[in-house]
Amino acid sequence: MNLPLGLWRIDANGYSGELKIANVDPLGNVVGTLHFAGEAINSIDGLAFWDDAAKKITFMRVVDPGKPATFQIFTGYFFPRDHAKPMGPSELAGSFMAFHGTGAVANRVLYGWFASHNG
């Protein structure tokens, strides 16, 4: 099953927003945006991959292109909300790595995130 397109409601360490997946090409390149409430919309075009065999998405959030310490790297895994309805509502869950520019510290660089898609 391919990654469902459209709107995903995302929560990343308590920050709520929208992950919009517009397209996934045959090579696994993802086109979309990530937007947290009160912040600028981040394009993930050219910064995101979908591994269909592993059901894994990896993408980078670039908060300030001139400051690499503000980049965040997300990895998440897809699963259906109900195993009996694999084409129904879906979830992504994983972690993201943050750096000093977004508030991370040396002893805490990984944070959790999840996203829900209503099918």
Q: Cα-atom Rg, whole angstroms?
A: 14 Å
What is the N-to-C succession of helices and strands?
EEEEEEEEE
Strand elements, count: 9
> What's the name of the CATH homologous superfamily?
Avidin-like
Residue windows where pLDDT falls under 50 for at least 5 positions: none
Mean pLDDT: 95
Main sheet: strands, sense, barrel: 9 strands, antiparallel
CATH topological fold name? Lipocalin
- Strand-residue proportion: over 45%
CATH class reads Mainly Beta
Helix content: under 10%
Q: Mind telling me which CATH architecture this is?
A: Beta Barrel
Q: Could you give the topology of this structure?
A:
Layout: E1 6-12, E2 15-24, E3 30-36, E4 42-43, E5 48-51, E6 56-62, E7 71-80, E8 90-97, E9 110-117
Antiparallel strand pairs: 1-2, 1-9, 2-3, 3-4, 5-6, 6-7, 7-8, 8-9
Characterise the protein shown here.
- The chain has a single domain, classed as Avidin-like (Lipocalin, Beta Barrel).
- A nine-stranded antiparallel β-sheet has the order 4-3-2-1-9-8-7-6-5, with no helix packed on it.
- The protein contains no helices and nine strands.
- With 119 residues, it is mainly β.
- A hairpin with a 5-residue loop joins strand 3 and strand 4.
List keywords for this structure.
119 residues, mainly beta, 9-stranded antiparallel β-sheet, globular, Lipocalin
